[in-house]
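Regression test case RT-17, inverse folding.

Input:
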């Protein structure tokens, strides 16, 4: 999993944890880079890595659900990484614990 330079420079970071309801990225993290030289740029990509507990995610605005038999969304397991590209996909991204009570932790780096 590589983040290519055309996706920009790392400009923000956050951790999502205890994701018991569908949760997206913090809007301020997407819209306002913390790195001074990147001010005014829009987020172009987000690298997410799963540290503890699997998640289910969507990028189209559909609300993901905790998996039972017919969960909604894509599954990412502990140790998986995913790059979200496209400003709309980043805005609409949502994730939730794949299993109720698994206390997933998702690390997110935002590229501008």
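Golden output:
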């Amino acid at each position: 999993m590589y983040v290519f330079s055309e996706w920009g420079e790392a400009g923000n970071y956050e951790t999502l944890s205890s994701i018991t309801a569908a949760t997206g990225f913090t809007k301020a993290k997407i819209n306002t880079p913390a790195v001074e030289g990147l001010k005014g740029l829009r987020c172009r990509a987000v690298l997410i890595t799963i540290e503890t507990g699997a998640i289910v995610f969507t990028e189209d605005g559909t609300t993901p659900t905790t998996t039972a038999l017919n969960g909604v969304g894509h599954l990412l397991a502990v140790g998986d990484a995913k790059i979200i590209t496209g400003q709309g996909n980043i805005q609409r991204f949502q994730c939730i614990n794949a299993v109720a009570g698994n206390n997933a932790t998702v690390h997110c780096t935002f590229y501008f």
